[in-house]
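Record type: ASSEMBLY
Status: queued
Input:
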Amino acid sequence: MGAPKQKWTSEEEEALRRGVLKHGAGKWRTIQKDPEFSPVLSSRSNIDLKDKWRNLSFSASGLGSRDKLRVPRPKAPSSSPSPSPQLLLLSAPNNVAEASPPEDCEKSPQDDKTPSPKFSMILEALDELKEPNGSEVATICNFIEQRHEVQPNFRRLLCAKLRRLIGVNKVEKIDKSYKLTDSYAKRALAPMKDPSLKKKDSAKSSKAAKGVGQLSPALDAAEAAAMKVADAEAKSHLANEHMMEVERIGKMAEETESLLELASELYERCSRGEALTILQVAHREF
DNA sequence: ATAGGGTTACAC
DNA sequence: GTGTAACCCTAT
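Status: finished
Output:
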């Protein structure tokens, strides 16, 4: 019994994108049930939607294979030849995840939730190899094989794993090589090493104005400069996103405040025995 | 129901 | 062989 794979059509893809625009990523069931999309997505489960979105996010995050998109893209030839920047912005849940998550400060010291046994191996390998331009799968694989007993299909697993890590911005792919993301490396590696023997940070920070600190000391000046530029670019981009986010949050805060006032007014009057609706109060107040 | 890891099928 | 898309399984 061969279950012939059911490739996604561009219509389905489009429906999924619009569904996410409308309901947000993560509301797969809602999207799937929405009468607007259910005709197109009838043969897809909510899990299928999730998986497909995951794939779309990978390719949209620009990492790895944007240039050699081999996916036949018979996009609507007439009206929207280009995916429109909105979609790209929206389809980068990973960027948001990279920017916002207080993830690491949540961990309790001892309950350091090991991400997954294999992930720590990869982390270790990429850290120790210290290749500024990343390490090839074979290199990583070798490294890990030397330290751990691995299963025969390990390499394959490793590929899949790396790919997923790219999806969550913990790893980036440069040509054929993989390396830890700057931002993630700093957060993940710092607490990993013995606090006693990693005090040379201060010495380094004098010449490298932070940002490329964790790289091999033998780095060429040219390479270092290139890295800095790339880093700076990435940072300015991020900064921009952060600005927008801050603005948005500010607005939300205002609205929240108004709502709070409204709520307390409502509460006060209700507790006095008055029976009224939120609309009545809102009307008086605004 | 969703998120994430793992597996299988396919294209290059 | 390698990378990717679709599918499957499990924990939360």
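Annotation: Residues 1 and 162 of chain A are 31 Å apart (CA to CA).
Annotation: Residues 2-5, 26-29, 46-47, 50, 54, 70, 116, 118, 153, 156-157, 160-161, 164, 168 of chain A lie near DNA strand B (CB under 10 Å from a C1').
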